[in-house]
Amino acid sequence: MDIDPDEIVTVELRWDNDGLPTTYSRDLTRRQLGELLLQVDDMAAETD
Fold first, then answer.
1. Local structure of 19: helix, strand or coil
2. Which residues are within 8 A (CB) of 11 and not within 5 positions of it... i.e. 6 or more apart?
3. What is the CA radius of gyration of the chain?
4. Residues 30, 5: contact at Cβ < 8 Å?
5. CA proximity to 10, closest of 39, 37, 30, 40
6. CA 20, CA 27: separation in Å to the nearest integer?
7. What distance in Å separates the CA atoms of residue 48 and residue 44, rounded to the nearest whole number?
8. DSSP secondary structure string, 13-46?
9. β-strand 8-17 against 20-29: which pairing, if any?
10. Are 13 and 40 in contact (CB under 8 A)?
11. Per-residue pLDDT tens for 15-29?
12. Is this prediction's pTM over 0.85?
């Protein structure tokens, strides 16, 4: 099974903001999601 890098996926982030749950969602392509995850990984490496 091949994965289409241009397929749209929905990313949903949830966090607690001063006792109020907050949800943020965004539609991205799988390619954009991969690039975003690499950036987050790089940022995490810099803060270690």
1. coil
2. 25, 26, 27, 28, 33
3. 14
4. yes
5. 30
6. 23
7. 6
8. EEEEETTEEEEEEEEEEHHHHHHHHHHHHHHHHH
9. antiparallel
10. no
11. 888 888 899 999 999
12. no
